[in-house]
């Protein structure tokens, strides 16, 4: 006779009968069921313990196989205690560190989480689409460091940094770079706030309130939008000035109309470029995403070529002459030789430069007084790192619009006549320059520090990755900018640094001539850099506005 217990009667021995109305459960069966439940609970506890161990190993800062810099695998552990050792393992069952790094570089993305979800939702085919959930898997290196690096190093470095150094001087240029790069201190706030998708907008709106968050978010949206326009204009300037100058639609017939012609060309080509980028962002973001690594590689190769060219100037400076009349810099678009006259077959004839300042090609023609009283000389635009020009480029050369670019070391006879100088082929300031203006021109180059916080929803550990990756990126780019300021001032002549568009060297890009092995490395690299940065701005700004609209902060943005 078995011991049985009924649910409806007091516990005790009973006989098993067919007519028993109580539902009885065998005590032994119930005990076995409880034992199995306890075993399952212990197994779940062991699994949670292993998960916590993997998280500790991934956050200890050691570059292991599953560190955030290399591999994001969570299904393998690194505990070699003898329990997981095998005599045989498939050859490619696990990726080594080098191959994992290459795999991450090949799959590098410049999209935010919202863009990835949108892209994945578009690819989800079927009669009924399911909600797409993209799990954050990006580490510090791929998710924060490289995007910040790509956004900070761009159009200002390639097109305007030499002009800033020539105008502000080395000392004030270092102050400008230091002021703008000091905004890295604001990024330290991320280390105390668990940031989710939405980046800096999420952080501010959840900590200071929706009103502050909406105000800052709208400013950030407008800043990202205007940054996109800056990159597009930089793309068009590189295209029309350094790649295909003959593609210009509007051509100035007079010197005073050159600025308006360039502005009109930028309007037409910039509108076309913006339309093409908008179409690409709307229908083909995932294809642009595949080129993100190409754009980043172009930036890195261009910077390396600059340093290689600077080192080369120590032994062999490039032949890059600048024609000077007295102490004034000349535009050499319309003449070939820096001479007033030359001897051909024992006959003295005038040159094209003579025709720019005189009423005719005859030797007895009426010429400009300053042209008659001063000689023309050739000055090496890039004398090299050991030339000593760094002492001359230490101080600022601010001035009003239309001021002549001069070399104060050279002799000059006769004064300026603004009524006549405006029609002469001199290099002049196109705008009035002062310190705060240069700060405003340079500052957009450091706004790329927000690229890491914008990807907070893609990061596996945003609270840790954002401050580390951003500070490392700021430190790297600050070193690059500071070193470039010093090296440009030590290698390049001051009058060439102040030449904003390269008019004194036939429109060539100064950094391109300085670089090694070819100027086209900088030209092509800067072109793709501006294109990539413009696409990123057009991709990120709408997502930010969408996040603001979802929070219902701005009523007319609600859909």
Search tags:
single chain; 559 residues; mainly alpha; Amino acid/polyamine transporter I; 19 helices; 5% strand
Task: Describe this structure as you would to a colleague.
52% of the residues lie in helices and 5% in strands. The protein is mostly helical. The chain folds into 3 domains: 1-14 and 24-39, no CATH class; 151-320 and 433-557, Amino acid/polyamine transporter I, CATH 1.20.1740; 321-380 and 404-427, no CATH class. The strands form 3 sheets. Strands 4-3-7 form a 3-stranded antiparallel beta sheet, with no helix packed on it. A two-stranded antiparallel ribbon has the order 1-2. The protein has a two-stranded antiparallel ribbon with strand order 5-6. A hairpin with a 2-residue loop joins strand 3 (321-325) and strand 4. The longest helix has 34 residues, at 210-243.
Topology of this protein?
Elements: E1 4-6, E2 24-26, H1 27-58, H2 97-106, H3 113-123, H4 140-152, H5 155-181, H6 199-208, H7 210-243, H8 258-283, H9 285-290, H10 292-315, E3 321-325, E4 328-329, E5 341-344, E6 347-350, H11 352-357, H12 369-373, E7 376-380, H13 418-421, H14 435-442, H15 451-454, H16 462-491, H17 494-497, H18 510-514, H19 519-550
Antiparallel strand pairs: 1-2, 3-4, 3-7, 5-6
């Amino acid at each position: 006779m078995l011991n049985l217990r009924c649910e409806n009667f007091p516990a005790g021995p009973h006989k098993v009968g067919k007519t028993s109305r109580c539902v009885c459960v065998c005590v032994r069966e119930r005990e076995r069921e409880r034992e199995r439940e306890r075993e399952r609970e212990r197994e779940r506890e062991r699994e949670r313990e292993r998960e916590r161990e993997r998280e500790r190993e991934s956050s200890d800062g050691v570059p292991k196989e599953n560190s955030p810099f290399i591999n994001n695998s969570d299904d393998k552990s690194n505990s070699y205690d003898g329990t997981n050792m095998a005599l045989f393992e498939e050859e490619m069952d696990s990726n080594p560190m080098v191959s994992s790094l290459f795999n991450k570089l090949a799959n590098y993305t410049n999209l935010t989480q919202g863009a990835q979800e949108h892209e994945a939702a578009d690819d989800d085919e079927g009669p009924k689409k399911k909600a797409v959930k993209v799990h954050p898997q990006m580490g510090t290196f791929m998710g924060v460091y490289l995007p910040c690096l790509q956004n900070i190093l761009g159009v200002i470095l390639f097109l305007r940094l030499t002009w800033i150094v020539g105008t502000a001087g080395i000392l004030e240029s270092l102050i400008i770079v230091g002021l703008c790069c000091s905004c890295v201190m604001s990024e330290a706030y991320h280390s105390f706030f668990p940031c989710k998708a939405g980046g800096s907008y999420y952080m501010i709106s959840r900590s200071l309130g929706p009103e502050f968050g909406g105000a800052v978010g709208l400013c950030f949206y407008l800043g990202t939008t205007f940054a996109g326009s800056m990159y597009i204009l930089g793309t068009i300037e590189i295209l029309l000035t350094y790649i295909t100058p003959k593609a210009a639609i509007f051509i100035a017939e007079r010197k005073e109309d050159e600025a308006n012609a360039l502005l009109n060309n930028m309007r037409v080509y910039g509108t076309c470029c913006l339309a093409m980028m908008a179409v690409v962002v709307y229908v083909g973001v995932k294809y642009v995403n595949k080129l993100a690594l190409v754009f980043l590689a172009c930036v890195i190769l261009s910077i390396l070529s600059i340093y290689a060219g600077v080192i080369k100037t120590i032994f062999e400076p490039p032949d890059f002459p600048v024609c000077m009349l007295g102490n004034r810099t000349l535009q050499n678009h319309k003449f070939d030789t820096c001479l007033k006259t030359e001897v051909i077959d024992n006959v003295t004839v005038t040159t094209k430069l003579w025709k720019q300042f005189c009423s005719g090609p005859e030797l007895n023609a009426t010429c400009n007084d300053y042209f008659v009283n001063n000689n023309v000389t050739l000055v090496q635009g890039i004398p090299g790192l050991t030339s000593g020009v760094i002492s001359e480029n230490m101080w600022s050369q601010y001035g009003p619009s239309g001021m002549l670019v001069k070399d104060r070391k050279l002799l000059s006879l006769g004064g300026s006549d603004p009524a006549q100088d405006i029609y002469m082929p001199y290099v002049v300031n196109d705008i009035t320059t002062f310190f705060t203006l240069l700060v405003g021109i340079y500052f957009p180059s450091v706004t790329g520090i927000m690229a890491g916080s914008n990807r907070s929803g893609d990061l596996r550990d945003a609270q840790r990755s954002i401050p580390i990756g951003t500070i490392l990126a700021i430190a790297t780019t600050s070193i690059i900018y500071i070193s470039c300021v010093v090296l440009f001032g030590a290698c390049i002549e001051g009058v060439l640094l102040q030449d904003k568009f390269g008019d004194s060297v036939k429109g060539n890009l100064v950094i391109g001539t300085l670089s090694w092995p070819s100027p086209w490395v900088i030209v092509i690299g800067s072109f793709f850099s501006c294109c990539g940065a413009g696409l990123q701005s057009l991709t990120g700004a709408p997502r930010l506005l969408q996040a603001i609209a979802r929070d219902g902060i701005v009523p007319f943005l609600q859909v």
